[in-house]
């Protein structure tokens, strides 16, 4: 964590899906591989819960960065 932000790197195995919980103020403050999550392919916002933005993702490598 650096200066009010968190970086989360995840790998989802082939032929699977996952929910990724990213600590964040809101979903709009999250990027994936440098792209706002609203425009990121294979990433869908699900909901906010307990201080985390929850995203559904398919298999692959992801780097989420969020402002806290």
* CATH architecture field: Sandwich
Unreliable residue runs: none
Q: How many beta-strand segments?
A: 5
Q: What is the CATH topology descriptor?
A: Maltose phosphorylase, domain 3
Number of domains: 1
Number of helices: 0
Question: In a few lines, what is going on in this structure?
Answer:
The protein is mainly β. It is built from no helices and 5 strands. Strands 1, 2, 3, 4 and 5 form a 5-stranded antiparallel beta sheet that branches.
Any overview of this molecule?
The termini are close together. The model has no long low-confidence stretch (mean pLDDT 94). Helix content is 0%, strand content 69%. Strands 1, 2, 3, 4 and 5 form a 5-stranded antiparallel β-sheet that branches. The chain is mostly beta strands. The chain has one domain: Maltose phosphorylase, domain 3, CATH 2.60.420.
Helix/strand layout:
Blueprint (H helix, E strand, L loop, with lengths): L4 E19 L6 E3 L2 E2 L6 E7 L2 E16 L1
Describe this protein with a few key phrases.
68 residues
């Amino acid at each position: 964590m650096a200066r009010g932000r968190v970086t989360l790197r995840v790998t989802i195995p082939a032929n699977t899906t996952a929910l990724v919980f990213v600590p964040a103020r809101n979903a709009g403050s999250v990027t994936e591989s440098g792209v706002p999550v609203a425009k990121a392919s294979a990433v869908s916002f699900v909901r906010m819960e307990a201080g985390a933005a929850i995203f559904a993702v398919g298999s692959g490598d992801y780097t989420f960065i969020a402002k806290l």
